[in-house]
């Protein structure tokens, strides 16, 4: 090789690291594009319309609730009137008198436990249902009573008249139909519209089925169990006996002090001691009875130290409760001046229940405040409330003395005081 010649360049062919097919296929594969989120335009008009629709719905709901509350006021009044009527009727029946007292104590104990005034009317809806049934039965009985009155009048005018006899027969037939109508309305639920239309087609279609009557009996048993009459009877009996234990000695001393036309100094002293003991008793008995109802213990009726501790925690609440208890009981002595026929006693008992039930509410409220605070108030709060009570309690004792001279039961009115025992005008006839 001549050194002057140009150098010979040799090239070495290096095989590719991958086959040609893989390179070509790799070039043909495209990488998927990552979608990018672009901001969507906000629809302010849609949001505004949705907000306005929600606000209008809430406004409509609120207005409808207000309308329902207003329309429900007459219904609530009717339920409360039915409850007062049932308690008044129970007050006139010898054994159920304790149930009436037990209900009022139970109402106050619910407030003493929860602190909610609306819980002071247990069984209000049930009383309203019973009132609807009684009212519907009375309204549908009016035609029967009218025909019966015509029949009695015809018999008085002409006892041998055929028309009077026919009216007598028609009245008895109507009375039997009225009984069937009331039972059938009660089986269907006892609503007010069940008394307006008897649904004779349904009676012919379902009245013969035992399942319908079994269901009605089960519903009746369930409603009766909800009334809790045995529990209220037991509660009222224990509260009655416990209150009588506290009032027996002061009432006996007061009665001894008033016996005879010429009273000796010793007799006057006995009467004075009885009056002082009575003033002390009436300041504690309402709260002792309420503690018995709240704790469901008969021993609570004798735990004076507990009432004293509760008074120190809420003295003004106790003072107001005692004021309402005694103040609402004083006007009722006017209804005990003269005896009322037995068939109208329940009318007077309406006022006794109406005046006694709020007193139990205030008593329960006072105990609730005392139990919630549970700390002794300062003497500047306790002593004024205590001396204020000694200002109006003698006024109540004065009316008790006055009742011995004017009321129908005489000396028994000192023992059986309606402010603490049975809400009844008098015990005898």
Short description:
The chain has 429 residues and is mostly helical.
Q: How are the SSEs placed, and which strands pair?
A:
Elements: H1 20-28, H2 44-92, H3 97-114, H4 124-157, H5 162-188, H6 192-196, H7 200-206, H8 210-227, H9 229-257, H10 265-295, H11 304-313, H12 315-329, H13 345-373, H14 379-406, H15 412-415
Can you describe what's shown?
The chain is an all-alpha fold and 429 residues long. The chain is 73% helix and 0% strand. It has helices spanning 20-28, 44-92, 97-114, 124-157, 162-188, 192-196, 200-206, 210-227, 229-257, 265-295, 304-313, 315-329, 345-373, 379-406, 412-415. 29% of the residues are buried.
What descriptive keywords fit this protein?
429 residues; mainly alpha; 73% helix; globular; disordered N terminus
